[in-house]
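Subject: LPS export ABC transporter permease LptG

B.,
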Amino acid sequence: MKVINKYLFSEMSGPFIVGVVGFVLVMAVDLLFTMADLIINKGVPVLAVLKLLIFKMPSILVLTFPVSTLFATTMALGRLSKDSEIIALRTSGVNLFDLAKPIIFFGLVVSIIAFFTNEKIVPQANYLATKIIRQIIYKQPLPGIKENVFFKDAYNRHYYAKRVDLENKTMDNVMVYEVTEEKYPRVILANKAKVSGRIWQLEQGVIHKYDEKGFLKYEAVFSDMKLNISEDVLNFAQQKDSQEMNSKELGGMIDILEKGGGNTNRLRTDLLMKYSVPLTCFVFALIGIPFSLPSPRSGRTWGLIVTIVFMFTFYVFASVFRSLGWGGIVSPAIAAFTPQISFVIFGLLLLGWENKL
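Prediction pasted inline below.
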């Protein structure tokens, strides 16, 4: 079996690399047209455009991994079917689950690579690409209105605002979470805040302090209060979005918002999807096996068509559940993992059914 495992693994490696290169080129076509327009018609420096292309590549690369895994599974099993090697192996007593093991392992390895790429490289690359687009290419100022803004200053204070109006320099639903020497932090909540440099004028708020057991021991209501901060409001509004943060940064943001009573359904769904999305490679490897095998009911071509249909069905399914998680209709965990778990179960059932034939 070790020989068979190495053989199937090597059969998939070549098509996978070809698939990654091919799908990257296909997905980058629109980006290349845009970049050519920036250089020729808008006079953007070539170096800036090349930097943008480099920083966009990691996110494009990760998107190609699942499809390339499916392509590699289909091509490898298709080649073995064409040369009757699968029939020879099965008549020699090798069952379908033994044949599936190296393919599933290959999908799992790609999933791990996709996770670490998405965790370590993609967030920073996306952030740098956004900076280039805003500051160098389009020279756009920050948007006038920002939603769900947060940052941490040098004094270990965390700030959050539901809505920031940069033009009028006002904020709505402000929370200041201040870590002190005490066990639990001091929390300041305010309905509104006006910004003047590094001075915030908080309006209609309350201050909470907690005892050693976490119970509220002090509450002070105020109509207005001045707060000195160490960051300018413009820097305050330049926070990263969920696609520009790794799981640790996003998890820290969620903890801050939850302690202040903020709605974190969208962010928690995005956090869990950082773990579930890379598993799509594993799912596609599993789903691709039964539909790539020769069968009296469906030939290889029909199997490939059905597999592609399932691929698009999966992405639609995943998009719907992501929206349900964002809206709080289902829990973030259900939204993030239901598509993968459902298709894994379905793939195993198909594999078991095909093994009995």
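Residues 296-301 have pLDDT under 50 and may be disordered.

T.
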